[in-house]
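Entry for the shared binder. Reason: the reviewer on the internal report wants the predicted structure included alongside the sequence.
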Amino acid sequence: MHTHKINLTKLKSAIKTLKGKSGEVECIIIPIAENRLYKSEKGVYLDLVGWEKKEIKEDKQTHLIKQSLPKEVLDKMSDEEKNAMPILGGTTDWTKINPETKSEALDGIGEIQDDLPF
């Protein structure tokens, strides 16, 4: 089992309070092109890649999450630009923190699948 945390404010963004039907609503505005998001008929996507950390610290995160960019974009970037890409969050692979989690997680999945209506 893995858990993930993404800090959306690490993308080029703005937090604004806008008026909605139910009153004021706090929103995060994320520009599509400026963040190199992929837009298709089905949605807008942020491709991510996890890099395994060499050392697990108190936060128990086993991987750092950065944006995954197409090869043609990466080829045009300098090493300095690549290194400056923000860490968007982290992932914890609980099987690395507690090896018993793996068997417990798989047992739970089996139980759920047995109850599926299809």
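Summary line for the report: The chain has one domain: 2-111.
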